[in-house]
Design brief:
Rossmann fold; Histone, subunit A; six-stranded parallel beta sheet; 13 helices
């Protein structure tokens, strides 16, 4: 069997298109490594590939979870490994495609399975974050672990909390902790990173945001809220959905909404690029043509 092909890269850089093209050439299946495309009813804002864009290629771990449910990196790793085992037994090539770094790290065995945080430590950190401010904990994280800190968004409370849980529970910085973990991915694999000049990537992001709005992104979010989904859910507390919710509350104009979606998507893309450079041994980069 050929090695598992991983295709990763920043958002809007052409990962899905490349994965489908390669899958059609090799009769492969695609396992999605996107932490938001797992959710049903969230199609436009997650840039979920349509049936036409999938071109008949079987896609897995996409569009199967209710937005009220949570799905961890560990759960993804378990599900993805079951699928890989199945398709290897059928002699079917597998492509893992997505930009969710934590999912790929977990699948490759870079995050230990079964890691459970002491609930008292978690509560202690949450209490401290609310008391002194999460920005203070973020700055302290950057002082203790600059490498991991620069990959952590100062507004990502969950990631900041997770970092301090590792520090408190194991007495190691996140970088020390993850480097010390033994990889446990039993298959050969090959990693391709989609590469595109920053100026062109920003243009792609802006064009995609505009297209999302034209396709009915606002209506999609309004429907989710009308269905009773809480705006505070993890699924909705993400780039694009947060800004549309703010628009529906009257906090942004539509123009401001589009502006902030673009800004925060750029910030996310920069973090993805940093993660790829620092955490993955990329075998090859693939320059996507700006079509």
């Amino acid at each position: 069997m050929k090695p598992i092909t991983f295709i990763t890269g920043p958002t809007a850089s052409g990962k899905t298109n490349l994965a489908v093209r390669l899958a059609l050439e090799s009769n492969a299946v695609i396992i999605s490594a996107d932490s938001r495309q797992v959710y049903k009813f969230m199609d436009i804002g997650t840039a979920k590939p349509s049936p036409e864009e999938q071109k008949g290629v079987p896609h897995y771990l996409i569009d199967f979870l209710d937005p009220s449910q949570t799905y961890s990196a560990g759960a993804f790793a378990n599900d993805a490994r079951e699928l890989i085992t199945r398709f290897y037994s059928e002699n079917r090539p597998v492509i893992v495609c997505g930009g969710s770094g934590l999912y790929i790290q977990a699948l490759l065995g870079l995050i230990p399975e079964g890691f459970k945080v002491n609930p008292e430590i978690r509560q202690k950190i949450r209490d401290k974050g609310e008391k002194v401010g999460w920005d203070v904990l973020w700055k302290e994280l950057n002082r203790l672990d600059p490498e991991y800190g620069k990959k952590t968004d100062q507004n990502n409370i969950r990631r900041i909390s997770r970092s301090w849980e590792i520090i408190e529970q194991f007495g190691q910085t996140p970088t020390e902790y993850f480097v010390g973990q033994e990889k446990s991915f039993p298959w050969d694999y090959f990693i391709i990173s989609t590469d595109i000049p920053r100026s062109e990537l920003w243009e792609r992001i802006e064009a995609r945001t505009r297209k999302m709005l034209e396709k009915g992104f606002v209506a999609e979010v309004r429907t989710l809220l009308d269905m009773g989904y809480d705006p505070g859910l993890n699924a909705l507390n993400t780039v694009g959905y947060k800004e549309i919710i703010a628009f529906l509350k009257g906090e942004f104009t539509l123009q401001e909404t589009e502006y902030w979606i673009n800004i925060r998507t750029r910030q996310y893309a920069k973090r993805q690029i940093t993660w790829i450079k620092n955490r993955l041994a990329v075998n090859d980069s693939y320059l996507i043509e700006n079509r």
